[in-house]
Specification:
Helix content: 25-40%
Largest sheet: 8 strands, mixed
Shape: globular
Number of strands: 16
Distance between the termini: 41 Å
Strand order of the largest sheet: 2-16-3-15-14-1-9-4
Radius of gyration: 21 Å
Length: 437
């Protein structure tokens, strides 16, 4: 049972549950196979784009070097060329492309340049979907990552570290920190202890929440507008916990999956990423959540990759100055990341669900808010989507879009497939054509 935040794990999706969204509508009178899920995976410092971009548009045939680890699942991929994260550009704010790249990636909003408490970006696409699905699953969303990061301080040319390490934004001023410890992710999903222990923990939570609310009632009248806003956000988070507790009481329990609970953060980076991938698959399979963000490494990360034959730091190498040997090492780091992506995709594809696989009922968006790390450019981004989104995406292709097509147009189109209808999100200009073929 899921008990980590006062909830119990949902039942896995069953065929008899039928369609959940209009995008998973019945076909020829038959019930839709499963609900849609969406996940966003981020890798830092851009790519060596010559080794990422397929040479021809249309059917995926020969994959370039960075995509080679995905050869077994190429028919499940949609490579998208031409998308732009305009709000990751400076627009008069000077340096800080790494912070802006991740801060704007899912929001399409210009992050405020500050290393203080007055951070600001925008609502991220995952949280738009999570809000829509809040009453359907145990957890509205799951935020995980392979590298810890600070939520304060100056990490990039006057930008707060929160921008470089956080992908998900519940509101313009509320970033959602990722969890990097697989043990804590597992506990959040599936918890530990018995029903009596969960009930006691929920009662304690409610008692504390009630006390904090009452104790701060007089304080709010004495605060300035900025502090009042922070307090309102704090109580918004409290209400969210309360709603989760109440929702958990109404949903049926399920046994913990047959998966050994992680003990700690593995020293081996590849193993760390794969355990997190396993947990994401379990969360989708058990219908604990249908929305996930996964930051493989923080933007601007200078992590070395000796296990991939690259002992130098990633960020340092990304400023390759067109040096051929450095570009080869960037390619090898990029291939390491797509190897981890291949593991996740194959894992999803191995799970039978309804009339297909779990992957068939997912949309995994993978990429970076930087294109060439040496140039710090944010157009023609390296973006791919894996999974067919319950039959609403035609994969096995490379699509090219006009220059300066907003990345947020893709996010709007993915929201459509989660039955979340919006006219705009961030700097979007419309929905992305051609995804259905």
């Amino acid at each position: 049972m899921l008990r980590g935040i006062g909830a119990t794990v949902a039942l896995p999706w069953l065929d008899s549950m039928g369609a959940v969204t209009s995008w998973a509508a019945p076909v020829d009178g038959k019930a839709a196979p499963a609900p849609n899920r969406m996940a966003f995976l981020y890798v830092p410092n851009g790519k060596n784009m010559a080794d990422w971009t397929p040479k021809t548009e249309g059917a995926l045939t020969d994959l370039p070097a960075i995509l080679q680890p995905l050869a077994k699942v190429k028919d499940d991929l949609l490579i998208l060329t031409g998308l732009t994260a305009d709000k990751a550009r400076a627009h008069g704010d000077g340096g800080g492309d790494h912070a802006r790249a991740l801060g704007a990636f899912l929001t399409g909003c210009q992050p405020r340049k500050t290393d203080g408490a007055d951070i600001r970006s925008g609502v991220s696409v995952d949280q738009v979907a999570a809000g829509r699905l809040a009453d359907v699953t145990r957890l509205p969303s799951l935020e995980i990552g392979g590298e810890a990061g600070s939520m304060a301080g100056n990490c990039d040319s006057g930008y707060s570290c929160v921008y470089s390490s956080t992908m998900s934004w519940r509101s313009a001023t509320q970033p959602l920190p990722k969890e990097v410890n697989p043990k804590l992710v597992f506990e959040r999903l599936f918890g530990s202890g018995g029903d009596a222990e969960r009930a006691k923990r929920d009662a304690r939570r409610k008692s504390v929440l009630d006390f904090v609310r009452e104790d701060s009632a007089d304080l709010k009248n004495k605060l300035g507008s900025n502090d009042q806003r922070k307090l309102d956000e704090y109580f918004s988070a409290i209400r969210d916990v309360e709603q989760r507790i109440a929702r958990a009481d109404k949903l049926p329990p399920v046994k913990t999956p047959d998966y050994k609970a992680p003990a700690t953060i593995p020293a081996n980076y590849a193993e760390h990423l794969r355990i997190l991938a396993d947990l994401m698959v379990l969360a989708f399979q058990a219908d604990v959540t249908r929305v996930c963000t996964f930051v493989l490494a923080n933007e601007g990360s200078n992590k070395p990759y000796p296990f991939a034959g690259v002992p130098e730091g990633h960020h340092d190498l990304s400023h390759h100055g067109n040096d051929a040997k450095k570009k080869e090492k960037i390619r090898d780091i990029n291939k390491f990341h797509t190897t981890q992506l291949a593991y996740l995709i194959e894992k999803l594809k191995s799970v039978t669900e309804g009339d297909g696989t779990l992957l068939d009922h997912c949309m995994l968006a993978y990429g970076s808010g930087n294109s060439d790390g040496n140039a710090h450019n944010h157009e023609d981004l390296p973006i791919l989507v894996a999974g067919r989104g319950c039959g609403t995406i035609k994969t096995g292709r490379h699509l090219k879009f006009a220059k300066e097509t907003p990345l947020n147009n893709l996010w709007l189109s993915m929201l459509d497939r989660m039955d979340v209808k919006l006219n705009n999100l961030g700097d979007s200009t419309g929905h992305l054509p051609g995804l259905k073929g």
